[in-house]
């Protein structure tokens, strides 16, 4: 108990000054695995001059997800994105503008838009896999990363980039990507070569998009892509988005959606190829759908793929690419644990929750380390039994992922095509987790032997 009679969360035992940092650098999830059994669902880590308070599990994380920005904000903790996304967007602007920009995302990802994107996703998948031979061996991770960049280019950045400027723009995105390192989170402007390449790439992308936007405006040509939505987006006061804002929002969309989706499609594949029962169930579902709709695949048909949906959702439960979500607290608040202990979290703390850890809590998920997509089937519904924040791979509440439907559609478009057209076998060991990446994914190659089906699936 502190003198004010407030009960502060227990503190992780570590050496003074650098101890907390060392514990964190060893891997935040390793630290959580060690401390949760000792300290429970709420505890504080002293990291240099900061206090990070972890709220683990649906019982204590509701405030994290639901609090208004004035109480728990993202701006300070996600500031490191600013040099990548560029000026005037997302974490570089105050909350009222950011909210409007998130409205632009919401509008660009509405069902009527998604329907058009899906048609492009399907074409991209068909074209990409038509280049595979009748049989062969591939690194699934590389293939899916590549396909998803192509699809994202088409749906988000537009056909000018996808058809003419793909190589240039992907090289620039590569530099942006490589400019976001763990050190960039603490020192985003550190003068290192990776950061100067990032800054150059950002400038060049702004020029490229300025040209595309100008040409679309001049010709009056409109397209069904996120670029077009952002060009046409207007703030409440009637102001139109600037070219620089459109570029920044597109970069943000790509950063939010590209690695997260390609990692999830790789894990989904790895699990399906190692779990014949679920692969058969997915195959059966695809057979039923081809009997019903023929070879056609569109938004509504993808939405019927419930078994595949659960297989993706379960891969994502076990391997959420965003392992840690953060906020900065601007007012004191309290949380009550499952055991009935109430803790007061003072303003000034950084508040964190971890999809990677919370998604495997044994009191929420039966046999949590097992790949068991049926845990999400009607009747069991393990992702909901402990309330809205039991399954947090896409976050939730006020800042829940706006791209969740897009991500599922994209991954389903890929995997329905693959299982309908190929027999596949995993020939490398089951992949390990690459904990060192900023967006946590699959370590090393994921080698697969494939054979094109001779007969259509039905
Ligand atoms: C499997 C794929 C994806 C995963 C696992 C994922 C995960 C997440 C998570 C955990 C958050 C919440 C962050 C927080 O609370 O701090 C988030 C937010 C967001 N995501 Fe995704 N995401 C995915 C795909 C996408 C795609 C494809 C897009 C867009 C095309 C997208 C756009 C966004 C946006 C705009 C936000 C911010 C929402 C807000 O702050 O109000 N995401 N995502």
UniProtKB/TrEMBL annotation:
It comes from Fraxinus pennsylvanica. It catalyses: a 14alpha-methyl steroid + 3 reduced [NADPH--hemoprotein reductase] + 3 O2 = a Delta(14) steroid + formate + 3 oxidized [NADPH--hemoprotein reductase] + 4 H2O + 4 H(+). Keywords: Heme, Iron, Lipid biosynthesis, Lipid metabolism, Membrane, Metal-binding, Methyltransferase, Monooxygenase, Oxidoreductase, Steroid biosynthesis, Steroid metabolism, Sterol biosynthesis, Sterol metabolism, Transferase. PROSITE patterns: CYTOCHROME_P450. This is sterol 14alpha-demethylase. It is found in: Membrane. Its EC number is 1.14.14.154. Heme binds at residue 401. GO terms for cellular component: membrane. One of its GO terms (molecular function) is iron ion binding. Transmembrane segments: none annotated. One of its GO terms (biological process) is methylation. It comes from the Eukaryota. It is a single-pass membrane protein.
């Amino acid at each position: 108990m502190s003198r004010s009679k407030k009960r502060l969360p227990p503190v992780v035992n570590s050496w003074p000054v650098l101890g907390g940092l060392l514990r964190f650098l060893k891997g935040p999830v390793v630290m959580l695995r060690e401390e949760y059994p000792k300290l429970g669902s709420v505890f504080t880590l002293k990291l240099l001059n900061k206090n990070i308070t972890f709220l683990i599990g649906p019982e204590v994380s509701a405030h994290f997800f639901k609090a208004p920005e004035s109480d728990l904000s993202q701006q300070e903790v996600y500031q490191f994105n600013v040099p990548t996304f560029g000026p005037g967007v997302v974490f570089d602007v105050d909350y009222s503008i950011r909210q409007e920009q998130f409205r632009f995302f919401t509008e660009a990802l509405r069902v009527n838009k998604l329907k058009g994107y899906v048609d492009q996703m399907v074409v991209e998948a068909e074209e990409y896999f038509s280049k595979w031979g009748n049989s062969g061996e591939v690194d699934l991770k590389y293939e899916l990363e590549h396909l998803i960049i192509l699809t994202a280019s088409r749906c988000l950045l537009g056909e000018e980039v996808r058809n003419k400027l793909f190589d240039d723009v992907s090289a620039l995105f590569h530099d942006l990507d490589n400019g976001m390192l763990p050190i960039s989170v603490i020192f985003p402007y550190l003068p290192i070569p990776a950061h100067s390449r990032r800054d150059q790439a950002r400038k060049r992308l702004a020029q490229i998009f300025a040209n595309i936007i100008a040409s679309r405006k001049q010709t009056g040509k409109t397209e069904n892509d996120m670029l077009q939505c952002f060009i046409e987006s207007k703030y409440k006061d009637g102001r139109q988005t600037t070219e620089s804002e459109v570029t920044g929002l597109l970069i943000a969309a790509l950063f939010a959606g590209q690695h997260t989706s390609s990692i999830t499609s790789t894990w989904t594949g790895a699990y399906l190829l190692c779990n014949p029962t679920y692969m058969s169930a997915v195959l059966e579902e695809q057979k039923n759908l081809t009997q019903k709709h023929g070879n056609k695949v569109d938004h509504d048909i993808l939405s019927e793929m419930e078994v595949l949906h659960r297989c993706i959702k379960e891969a994502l439960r076990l391997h959420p690419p965003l392992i840690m979500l953060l906020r900065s607290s601007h007012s004191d608040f309290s949380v009550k644990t499952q055991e009935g202990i109430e803790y007061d979290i003072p303003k000034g703390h950084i508040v964190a929750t971890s999809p990677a850890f919370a998604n495997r809590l044994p009191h929420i998920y039966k046999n949590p380390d097992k790949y068991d997509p049926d845990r999400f089937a009607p009747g069991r519904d393990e992702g909901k039994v402990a309330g809205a924040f039991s399954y947090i791979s896409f976050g939730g509440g006020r800042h829940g992922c706006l791209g969740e439907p897009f991500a599922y559609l994209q991954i389903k478009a890929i995997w329905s095509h693959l299982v309908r057209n190929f027999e596949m076998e995993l020939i490398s060991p089951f992949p390990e987790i690459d904990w060192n990446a900023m967006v946590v994914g699959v370590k090393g190659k994921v080698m697969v032997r494939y054979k094109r089906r001779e007969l259509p699936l039905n």
